[in-house]
């Protein structure tokens, strides 16, 4: 997404984009992410938005900030899961959560439809 886009991305969306780029190998272990200030300008968002995205990725263990140098994709210790694998798993988990949320919303709708037909169950508090 560039500055010409209608809607500007939020921090969560920026983090998801970078997470996907880590998962696909665009940014490998030790790679430096774009400078937050330049990236914010490119995306047309506030610097704090990019910084929040980078913080989210840092909390997920995918990147680490080096004071005065930038933000880098973590280089895992031997035997430790790498950032690419972690990013792939996070992406898969997010897709599964979205799927389950959609299913749950459908179930809630079906319960409401059933309640409308049969009425509330005795002993259950009214909603």
Describe it for me?
The protein is mainly alpha-helical and 127 residues long. It is built from four helices and two strands; from the N terminus they run H-H-H-E-E-H. It has a two-stranded antiparallel ribbon with strand order 1-2. It starts with 10 loop residues before the first helix and ends in a 9-residue tail after the last helix.
In a few lines, what is going on in this structure?
The protein has 127 residues and is mainly alpha-helical.
Q: Keywords for this structure?
A:
127 residues, two-stranded antiparallel ribbon, 55% helix
Number of strands: 2
Q: Low-confidence stretches at least 5 residues in length (pLDDT < 50)?
A: none
Distance between termini?
43 Å
**What structural category arises from helix and sheet content?**
mainly alpha
What is the topology, as strand order, of the major beta sheet? Answer: 1-2
Count every helix, treating DSSP H or I runs of 4 or more residues as helices.
4
Per the principal axes of the C-alpha atoms, what is the gross shape? elongated
Query: Topology as H/E string?
Result: HHHEEH
Strand proportion, as a percent range, falls in 5-15%
Largest sheet: 2 strands, antiparallel
Helix content: 55-70%
- Rg from Cα: 21 Å
What's the overall average pLDDT, rounded?
87
